[in-house]
Specification:
Helix content: 10-25%
Oligomer: single chain
CATH class: Alpha Beta
Strand order of the largest sheet: 4-3-2-1-5
Radius of gyration: 13 Å
Number of strands: 5
CATH topology: S16 Ribosomal Protein, Chain: A
Length: 85
């Protein structure tokens, strides 16, 4: 199964993540099928905190890719997925 999930980069106490399309059996930081954007939880500027290619994310969701819980939250924040309400 294909999943949308995060790859961790950065150093200790300063994480930086990339939103990637990966096979669920692969390791966290192994090669990805495609990288869709990034998430920087410690960024001071809210505009630089999150960037996701909405068109490609919608494509992968349409062909059956499942987002992880964290990526689902990020996609809702960007307006790519509908909120539960």
């Amino acid at each position: 199964m294909v999943k949308l999930r995060l790859k961790r980069f950065g150093r200790r106490h300063r994480p930086y993540y990339r939103v990637c399309v990966m096979d669920q059996r692969s390791a966290r930081n192994s090669s990805a099928i495609e990288e869709l954007g990034y998430f920087d939880p410690i960024a001071k500027d809210p505009e630089k905190e999150l960037s996701i290619n909405a068109e490609r994310a919608k494509y992968w969701l349409s062909v059956g890719a499942q987002p992880s819980d964290t990526v689902r939250t990020l996609l809702r924040r960007q307006g790519i997925l509908e909120s539960k309400k």
